[in-house]
Amino acid sequence: MKLWSLLGNSQKLDGGAMFGNVPRGLWERWIVPDEQNRIPLACRALLVDDLDGKTVLFETGIGAFFEPKLRERYGVVEDRHVLLDSLQAAGFSHEDVDAVVISHLHFDHAGGLLAPWQEGVAPRLLFPNAAYVVGEECWQRAMHPHARDRASFIPELQPLLEASGRLERVRGDRSVTLGDKVRFSYSSGHTPGLMLAEVATADGGIVFCADLIPGRPWVHLPVTMGYDRYPELLIDEKRAFLDDKLARNVRLFFTHDVGCAAARVARDDKGRYSTVDERPELVAEAA
0.85 cut: is pTM over it? Predict the structure, then answer.
């Protein structure tokens, strides 16, 4: 089994929104904003090859499905589908992927399922040979969104996934498609039913943190996003999550951290969490 971290389209979003109640004087020490107060964010996917004989992609990033006006509004930097380029550089195409796992259906995690925008052309799915694996609770949220996060979903996406005949909606800690090598846990502080996928490896495992912990600054317990549904719940979930990964030596995989793809958890004598063994990228790493 081998692991790759694959970059998709990048974004620039308001730093205050990304750091919730953290003052700018503090968060700008971690990530320097531009003149519009925006910070750079990655949309990184994890590719696992030979996972019980399957090629599995965890997340697809934001992709290039937005029309130009919306691409500018939401701070998407590139107009091409960068994830497709990253797959090709790793020696794969989207047709080679056997399963795509999506933590939740916000557009910056699921938009890469769609082909790049073309004027006058209806949205269509990529990954024609893959099962699409999503959690049941986050599926229901996408189908019946709250006014607070309605704009975070892609209305055309769910019908396309259903019509594919290749959609698996997961209701527990295992997937029929993926078997015992992938275990799921759930968080609801950011959005209901956020599905956190942990891949078993020889050195303790690696877990896709999604928006529970978007990057290294958010490992610190009090740091949450303005986009989070229930920040206090998220902090409690994050503490339990980090304690578990520390105890079992499971690596964290970050989707939105520009400079770090994976790291291990550390905790000091005051109970403050941090990261060690930080890796900017994974390239065909044996697991």
Answer: yes
H or E element at residue 107: helix 107-110
Q: Answer for the pair 126, 111: CB distance below 8 angstroms, yes or no.
A: no
Tell which CATH architecture fits domain 2-286: 4-Layer Sandwich (3.60)
What is the block-wise mean pLDDT of the chain (287 residues), using blocks of 10 residues? 98 97 96 97 98 98 97 96 98 98 98 97 98 98 96 97 98 97 98 98 96 98 97 98 98 98 97 97 97
Nearest Cα residue to 11 out of 67, 73, 100, 60: 73
Give residue 214's identity as a one-letter amino acid code. Answer: P
24-46, pLDDT tens digit by residue? 999 999 999 999 999 999 999 99
Q: What is the pLDDT of residues 191-239, one digit of tens each?
A: 999 999 999 999 999 999 999 999 999 999 999 999 999 999 999 999 9
- The domain limits of the chain are 2-286
Which string of b and e fits 64-101 if b means at least 16 CB within 10 Å? bbbeeeebeebbbebeebbbbebbeebebebebbbbbb
55: helix, strand or coil: strand
Distance between CA atoms of residues 202 and 205, nearest Å: 7
What is the rounded CA–CA span in Å between residue 234 and residue 212?
A: 7
Token pair in block for residue 74: 């939401």
Q: What are the b/e assignments for 240-249, b being 16+ CB within 10 Å?
A: ebbeebeeee
